[in-house]
Amino acid sequence: MPEERLDPAVRRLAGILVLGALAPLLDSTIVSIALHTLGQDLGASTASLQWVSTAYLLALATVVPISGWAVDRYDSRHVWLGALTLFLAGSLLCGLARNIGTLIAFRTVQGIGGGLLLPVLQTLVMRAAGGRGLGRLMAAITLPAVVVPILGPVLGGLIVGHLSWRWIFYVNLPVCLLALALAWRGVPKGTPRPGHHLDLTGLLLLSPGLAALVYGLSETGTARATAIPAGAVLIALFTHHALRARDPLVDLRLFQDRAFAVSSILTFLNGLALFGGMFLLPLYYQQVRGEGVIAAGLLLAPQGLGSLLARTTGPLTDRLGPRPVAVTGMLLCALGTLPFLLPHPGATLLALALTVRGLGVSAANMAVMVGAYQGLDHARIPHAGTTVRIVQQVGGGVGTAVLATVLAHAHGTTAFPHAFAWATAFTVVACGVGLCLPVRVASAQQRS
C-alpha cells in the first residue's frame, strides 16, 4: 500500500501552530525549578508559593471546555491569535511582578491563554488534514508535548543558575512574538457560526467541576477530601445535562463511537504514565541517587531521545492502524520502567531504560490520538479536541496524586520501587485496554 503523503500546506500549518504551543509547554516545566528561588526573592511562604502553579492549572482547567465552542463560534484564526496574545501578556506581567499576589494573578492570565492553545491547535490541524496521514501529523504535533517536559527542567535549571527567576517568564516572549507573526500570515481564516450559542449551563457545571478536581488532586488532607467529591458531583451533573442538551458544551455522544471511547480511556491512562513519570523520575534522581537539579535534568535527556525516535512510528500507524502501535508502545513504556524497581541499577541501564520508556510513551500517545481523530467528520473535531485535552489533563492529575500518595505512605528504600511498580501497573492495564482499539478505524461516513 503506497504511503499517504501530507499536504505541504498542512505541514506548514502544523509547524506554525506547534511553535505557538512550545511556550506554554516550556513554561509548565521550567517554573517548578524556580519556585524556591522565586519564594526567597519575593519573601513568599510555601503555602503562598504553591499557588504559582495551582492558579495556572485552575485557570487552564476552567477554560479548556470552551475551546471547542470558541473555534465554532468565532474565526478559529482569531481564537488562536487571541490565546497566544493572552499567554504573551501573562508571561510579560509575570516577569514584572513585584509580589506573590500579583504573580499569582498574572499566572491566571497565562493559564487562560495556555488552556486554549493546545485544544485549538489539535482542532485546526485535524480539520486541515481532512483525515489523511494522521500518523505523520500526530508525530509532528505531539512531539513537543513529550520532549519539552523532559528537556524543560534542564533549561529551567540553567536560567535560574545564571539569570534572574524573571527570565523563566521572559523566555516565552520571543517564542510568542515569532509564533504570532507566523500565525498572522500562515493560519487560514475559519468560518464562524454566529448562531452557535454557548451552553451556559454546561459551562457552569463542567468548568468549576474540572477546577475542583484539579485543585483536589494537587492538594492533600481536608482540601483534597472536599474538592475531589465536589468536582466529581459537578462533572456527573454535567454528564446528565450534556447527554440531553441539543448543543452541549462538550458532546459526550462521541463516546458512542468505539474508537473514540477506547482512545479516550487510553489517553487517560497514558496521562498517568507520562505525567506520573514526570513527577517520579526527577525526584528519584535527586532523592535516591543524590543528583543536583541540573544533573537530574541532564540524566533524563535519554527519555527525550526516545521520544525523537518515536517519530518513525507515525507512518507505521498510518499503515497498520493505531492498535498494534499503541499496544507495543505501552509495552515498551512498562519495560523501560522496570529497571527503576531494582535496588541499585547502573547508570547505563537507566539511560537505556529511559530511552525505551520515552519511545514507548511517545509512540503510544501518537497512536492513541490517531485512533481518537481518524474518520471523525469536520463538525465533531472541536468537541473531540476539547474532550481529549480534558481527559489527558485529569489523567495526569490522577497519576501524579496516586504516585505522590504511594511515596508518602511507603517507607525508606521501598518508597520509590513501590511507586514505580504502580506506574508499571498503570501501563499494563493500558495494554489490555489497547487491545480493544479497532485495527482499522472507520471512515467519517461510517463513524457519523
Please give the oligomerization state of what you see. single chain
Q: Provide the domain count.
A: 3
CATH C-level name of the largest domain: Mainly Alpha
Whole-number radius of gyration? 21 Å
N-end to C-end Cα span: 26 Å
Shape category = globular
**Mean of residue pLDDT?**
79
Q: Unreliable segments (pLDDT under 50, ≥5 consecutive)?
A: 443-448
Helix and strand composition category? mainly alpha
As a percent range, the share of helical residues equals: over 70%
What is the succession of H and E elements? Answer: HHHHHHHHHHHHHHHHHHH
Number of helices: 19
Strand content: under 5%
What is the CATH architecture annotation of the largest domain?
Up-down Bundle
Quick description:
By secondary structure, the chain is mainly α. It is built from 19 helices and no strands. It folds into three domains: 198 residues, Growth Hormone, Chain: A (Up-down Bundle), CATH 1.20.1250; 48 residues; 199 residues, MFS general substrate transporter like domains (Growth Hormone, Chain: A, Up-down Bundle).
Task: Write structural notes for this entry.
The chain has 448 residues and is mainly α. It folds into 3 domains: 1-198, MFS general substrate transporter like domains (Growth Hormone, Chain: A); 199-246; 250-448, MFS general substrate transporter like domains (Growth Hormone, Chain: A, Up-down Bundle), CATH 1.20.1250. The chain is built from 19 helices and no strands. It has helices at 8-42, 46-63, 67-73, 76-96, 100-129, 134-162, 167-170, 172-186, 200-218, 221-242, 258-288, 293-299, 301-309, 313-320, 322-337, 347-373, 381-409, 415-434, 444-447. Helix 4 runs antiparallel to helix 5.
